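Worked problem 6 (solution included).
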Amino acid sequence: MAHSNHDNYDLVIVGGGAAAFAAATKANDLGKTVMMINYGLPIGGTCVNVGCMPTKTLLTMGDELYYGQHPRFRALQNGHKPAFDLATAIQEKDEIVAKARQSNYMNVVDSMEGVTYLEGRARFISPNQVEVEGEEIEGDKFIIATGSSTKWLPVPGMEESDCLNNVTALQLNKIPDSMIVIGGGPLGLEFAQMFAHFGTTVTVVEAMDRILPRHEPEIAAEIRRALEEEGIRFKTGVTIEGMRQKGDRKLVTIRHGQGARRRRSLVTETEELDAQEVCLLAAGIQANTDALGLDKAGVSVGANGFVQVNQDYGTDNPNVYAAGDCVGKMALETVAAREGSLAAENALTGSHKSIDYDHVPHAVFTNPQVASVGLTEEEEMRRFHACSCRTIYMNRIPKADVIKETRGVFKMVIHPETSQILGVHIVSPNAADLIHEATLAVKFGLTVDDIIDTLHVFPTLSEGIKRVAQAFTRDVSVMACCVE
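Solution. The predicted structure is:
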């Protein structure tokens, strides 16, 4: 809908991604007038433009390229190496993104009667007004949904080193010879394997003692093993001291053993890593809030610019709410959309709705994939001072033998007294699809017996969830396929 002269709106949304769209949809459903102001990334925000959708396209291309050359079966032992052209891959990715942006965002805005969409940089000039390109817009309520971007590290030489991030890495048109990925979280691992599959030599540097530091240790160890088998190198428990450019090479100085006790003494040693062409920064995010004039709106932010919100997604200003990556709860498209919808409903109707974050599934789209929902063993210990967990590896699942897939692990966390399933953590092909059975179990308080009593299709990787449930009641290492 074109911008009208109607400059006082029921709801003004600053942002144009998943949270903003969900908020606009909810407000439109409630019959309210809405102004959505987007700046930075094109309409649709991170997920469609530089996040979930384009990365999954390129990861799938990388899988088809790499696994075709490295077959698991003797009958295919010679493999095949198809021609691969990164420039064409990026162009194909851009076409898929453009189509999704049109159908999922532009067409949606056009279909909503009460929603006006404006491109421009908004900043607060008072508690109930923003200014965009010299024009003042008033709102009864506001939602800040400006998303997040790569956090820069205060490392000497990094500014000059032109590190890639998730935006610029998706624009390369030739395959780098070698790459250093800074950050061993979900984003770092996805980009590491994507480029390794394309043929780049990849080293991942992570400050914590293990990759995926927020995941279960067994999960992190198994995905590391799988990625190392494919030639990706890892340096964990290291800090980055500095970066410098030498000709067309990037040199990264890292320090080992910072704070780690080795042989009862603090041993630190430095090493210089050499990347032929590029480094990619994926060591965390910061909220896109620094240019919003939030002090004028009476809205406070915390570390890395994240907007401080209460249970209802409200800020210090009773008329300003915030949702999505910029509040820093869980940086997921699905969570942003739900938060945006609830923030709009709370702002406009006075309701007090929020998400139960224990029920939110999330995944890392490496191959094999990583997926989790609910509590980890560490969190269960913190809450209940006791834990009940089982872990089984892929070689206990009949389907794994059939397809010669040895990479994977299933871990289940249950309530120490009621046997209700509190968390499930998976490394497996298609783990992101498998996790939903576990998500329903966690959300609706199912027990181990509920899963065991449910027939599963045989042979499937989904049986891993049943097998790990059975591990609470019997020794699954000696068990016929068909035993119920």
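Discussion: The radius of gyration is 24 Å.
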